[in-house]
Amino acid sequence: MKNLNKIKERVFEVSREPELANALFPGINALDKLQYAYAVYLAGAKPKLVLGHVANTLPRGWKTGYMGDFRNFIMRHPPRSFMDLVFLLDFFHFNSTRLHHRYDPNRLPFSSIGIVNNMLKESRGVLLWHYQLENLLRLFVEDSAKVAKLRKGINVQSQTAYDQAKGLQLTEKDSLDEVITERMLFFSTCSPNCRGAWVLFGCCE
Question: In this structure, what is the dihedral angle of CA atoms 68, 70, 76, 77, given to the nearest 10 degrees?
Fold first, then answer.
């Protein structure tokens, strides 16, 4: 990989660096009301966000300053394709902020269910993105509005939503709720970070 020196990973206080915060998170309303920003970005005259978020609290053990976790991660796990880079960005972001690097993307032993393996191939078998969960639900539910509602219910850990999924059998042995519990490692799904991957893609060729 080239130009890795352009990748910066930092936790900083929004009030101390408002210009950087606004450059990285232009779409956040009332950004000045939030205390901390975590960002992986390409440094330059116009810094470009790869991944990150803003919040009023930091995960346990985090503090302000530079970090090297993402650079080490992407060097250990070079992307195999553009979509694999999208997967690695979201996998890293979820893994670091929610589980503190619990999972290794190369060691994800799931039970083998052909159709599920195929539908989740882009994310190495992890149920990671909203559209993947909705596609699994569409195997059983035709109405798009109901699919979206059920996906949102599962993402907020609604027992009612899980009970509905429990009644949907993928195989004789495997119900949809069991697949969701096994494959949705980070307790909810997200939209794929295609923009961040596009920013980083030239850096990681």
Answer: 180
Q: In this prediction, what percent of the chain has a pLDDT beyond 70?
A: 97
User: What pTM does this model have?
Assistant: 0.92
* Amino acid code (one letter) for 101: H
Is residue 13 over pLDDT 80? yes
- Tell whether the model's pLDDT for residue 205 goes beyond 60: no
Long-range CB contacts for residues 60-66, cutoff 8 Å, separation at least 24: 60/100, 61/100, 62/11, 62/38, 63/11, 64/10, 64/11, 64/12, 64/13, 64/36, 65/10, 65/11, 66/8, 66/9, 66/10
Closest CA to 8 of 85, 65, 53: 65
pLDDT of residue 107: 92
Looking at beta carbons, which pairs linking 143-152 to residues 24 or more positions away fall under 8 Å? 151/189
Rounded CA separation 179/173 (Å): 11
